[in-house]
Each structure stands twice: as structure tokens, then as C-alpha cells.
Amino acid sequence: MMQAFRQWFQVLSSRERIIVIAGGILAGILLFWGTIWEPMVTQHQQLLTQIDDREKELRWMRHGQQTLKNAPQTLQPKTNKTNKDISRIVESNLKRFKLQNDHKMSGTKEVQLSLKKVPADQVMRFLGSLEKTQDIYVKTMDLKPINDKGLINISMRLKRI
């Protein structure tokens, strides 16, 4: 095959040989550019863009980290912890959240509550407030749904930690 190509090439005039050689060189350059150089440059640009994006994220995260280090008190919930009797604290929070207790409460560390026909979301807000501001948590709970939508009967034992 190579012999046939040499014979064909030898038969060509010098002008035709120059055109064939130039065409081969041009085809080689285009082949190199299209299969190697252009994909490599495109990938390089994508990687540079990714590096820039990652550096921006890293700067943002370091800034956030520094902000958190400088202001740790903003992460802590504000507390109104006192040495008051737990039953007084719970009673005042029940009034604040407009909830009515059906049982008498007593105790310094633990209290029993029974609420009838109260809004469930209001009870959750009440419990969240006690937990965040007074370190008072639910020890036991008994929920009983009733026919009125959104209302519940609930018995619970609250404990201060």
C-alpha cells in the first residue's frame, strides 16, 4: 500500500506535490486542534471556573466561621432561669399562652398538668418556651385527640433539669 502511494506521489507534478503536502499538514493540524488542543483548553477553562467558585465558597465559609467565633452569645437562647418554684413558672407561662390547667400544681422540680380542649399548636409553643427559657422538659405525656379539629386533651409531667 505504501509502495502504491509512493508511485502515485512520484507521478504528480511538483506543484501538485506541494498542494498534497500542504493539505496533509493542514489536515494534521486540524485533527490535532479538534481532538486534543480544543478539548484540553475547554476543560482547563472549566477547571479554572470551578477553582474560582470553590475559592469564593471558602472565603464565604471562613467569614461565617469568623462571625460565629466572634459572636457565640447569639447562638445561645436567651434564658430567664430563676430559682422560682416550677409550678409558678409553669402557671405564668400557661397564662401567657392562654391555656387553662384542670389540676392543682405543686413541686419545685416536677409538676403534673392536665389540659382539656386546648389548641395543639399553642401547647407546642408553650412547651418550646419552657424548654428554651427555663430548662423545663416533658418527662411524660399523654395526648388524646378530640372531635374538634386542632384541639387536644393532654396530660403531662414536666421536670426542670
Structural class given helices, strands, pairing? alpha+beta
Number of domains: 2
Strand content: 15-25%
Give the termini separation: 93 Å
Fraction in helix: 55-70%
The biggest beta sheet, please?
3 strands, antiparallel
Overall shape: it is rod-shaped
What is the arithmetic mean of pLDDT? Answer: 86
**Lateral arrangement of strands in the main beta sheet:** 1-3-2
Instruction: Work out the helix count.
Output: 4
What is the radius of gyration computed over CA atoms, rounded to a whole number of angstroms? 40 Å
Encode the helix/strand succession as letters. HHHEHEE
The low-confidence runs, each spanning 5 or more residues with pLDDT under 50, are 74-80
Tally the beta strands: 3
Subcellular location: Cell inner membrane
Transmembrane segments: 18-37
Protein name: General secretion pathway protein M
Keywords: Cell inner membrane, Cell membrane, Membrane, Protein transport, Transmembrane, Transmembrane helix, Transport
